[in-house]
Amino acid sequence: MEKMKQRMERWALACLFGFVAGLFGFGNQTSETGRLTAGLAAIFQASLAAAEGPEAADKTLSPYFFVKSDQPDLDQLPLKSTAAVVNVAGVIADIKVTQVYKNEGKRPIEAIYVFPASTRAAVYGMKMTIGERVIVARIQKREEARAAYEQAKQQGKSASLLEQQRPNVFQMNVANILPGDEIKTELSFTELLTPTEGVYEFVYPTVVGPRYSNQKAAEAPPSEKWVANPYLHEKQQPTYTFDIALRLAAGMPIQEMTCSSHAVDVRYEDPSRAVVALAPSEKFGGNKDFTLKYRLAGDRIESGLLLYQGEDENFFLLMAQPPKRVSQADIPPRDYIFIVDVSGSMHGFPLEVSKTLLKNLIGGLKPTDSFNVLLFSGGSELMSERSLPATPENIRKAIDLIEHQKGGGGTELLPALQRALALPRSERAARTVIIATDGYVTVETQAFDLIRQHLGDASFFPFGIGSSVNRFLIEGMARAGSGESFVVANPNEGPARAEKFRRYVQSPLLTRIKLDFDGFEAYDVEPVSIPDVFAERPVIVFGKWRGQPKGTISLRGLSGERNYEHTIDVASVQPLASNSALRSLWARSVITRVCDYNFLQPSDKRINEVTHLGLKYSLLTAYTSFVAIDSQARRKDGDVTTVSQPLPLPEGVSDYAVGGGVSGASVAMQGKTMSAAPPPHARPAVPVYDSADRSASRGGPGKLKGPGSGAGRTQPAQKDALTGNEEEKRDDIKGRDESGWKVKIDRLSVAGGLTEVTVRRVIEANMKEILNCLPTGIKAGAREKVTVRWTVDGEGKVVDVKIVAARPSARSTEKCLTERIRGWRFEAPTRTGATATATFLFEFGGK
Question: Which of these, 449, 310, 291, 426, lies nearest to 368 by C-alpha position?
Answer without folding.
Answer: 426
